[in-house]
Amino acid sequence: MDSFTKREQIGILVIVLVIVVSLGFKFFARDIIKLEDNMEVINENQLEASEDIEDTSIIEEEETIIMVHISGQVYKPGLVELEAGQRLTDAVELAGGLRKDADIDRINLAKKLVDEEKIYIPKIGEEPLEEISTIGVNDLNIEDISDKININTCTKEALISLPGIGEVTASKIIEYRESTPFKNIEDIKSVSGIGEKKFQAIKELIIVK
């Protein structure tokens, strides 16, 4: 065979280079796709791990935070948040402390509290609850029995005793009820500043008459 001319040699070389480059690009693209797939799997695993950590944190927080309702001879009756294992003395402190008429001989300040517990601080000379229960219902105010606040008639101070209700929000509640009395406790959510979360915190403490 005759030798290739210089032009033919250059043409063959160009074709070979094109083939080599094409094959190299094909393998490179395949590696890129594999790398992207691996990155997606890694990101998904990281996201799942992050969600698991968040879920665990929420569970731990729910297990360590308790809420109790304290009333009677304290300055700020209502719901208080505590850490699991805290005692009645801690709840009393969060409720503003004991009033001077509180009968401390009938309560145990060292008592450990549990979630959803109801604590009543009696007054000196007050009859025990067993004796009070013998009094006819007609002789007592229903609001006193339920220990709930009537949001249609209560004072501003009583509203402020509710968890999450400050002086400004209490004023808004009073202003609202003067023009539109509450028909049910859910109506309080119509007052500016009271959303679903705040309502859930106070719904067991309020009543409408």
UniProtKB/TrEMBL annotation:
<feature type="transmembrane region" description="Helical">
    <location>
        <begin position="12"/>
        <end position="29"/>
    </location>
</feature>
<dbReference type="GO" id="GO:0015627">
    <property type="term" value="C:type II protein secretion system complex"/>
</dbReference>
<protein>
    <recommendedName>
        <fullName>Helix-hairpin-helix DNA-binding motif class 1 domain-containing protein</fullName>
    </recommendedName>
</protein>
<keyword id="KW-1133">Transmembrane helix</keyword>
<dbReference type="GO" id="GO:0015628">
    <property type="term" value="P:protein secretion by the type II secretion system"/>
</dbReference>
<keyword id="KW-0812">Transmembrane</keyword>
<dbReference type="InterPro" id="IPR004509">
    <property type="entry name" value="Competence_ComEA_HhH"/>
</dbReference>
<dbReference type="GO" id="GO:0006281">
    <property type="term" value="P:DNA repair"/>
</dbReference>
<dbReference type="GO" id="GO:0003677">
    <property type="term" value="F:DNA binding"/>
</dbReference>
<keyword id="KW-0472">Membrane</keyword>
<dbReference type="Pfam" id="PF10531">
    <property type="entry name" value="SLBB"/>
</dbReference>
<feature type="domain" description="Helix-hairpin-helix DNA-binding motif class 1">
    <location>
        <begin position="157"/>
        <end position="176"/>
    </location>
</feature>
<dbReference type="InterPro" id="IPR010994">
    <property type="entry name" value="RuvA_2-like"/>
</dbReference>
<dbReference type="Pfam" id="PF12836">
    <property type="entry name" value="HHH_3"/>
</dbReference>
<feature type="domain" description="Helix-hairpin-helix DNA-binding motif class 1">
    <location>
        <begin position="186"/>
        <end position="205"/>
    </location>
</feature>
<dbReference type="InterPro" id="IPR051675">
    <property type="entry name" value="Endo/Exo/Phosphatase_dom_1"/>
</dbReference>
<dbReference type="InterPro" id="IPR019554">
    <property type="entry name" value="Soluble_ligand-bd"/>
</dbReference>
<dbReference type="InterPro" id="IPR003583">
    <property type="entry name" value="Hlx-hairpin-Hlx_DNA-bd_motif"/>
</dbReference>
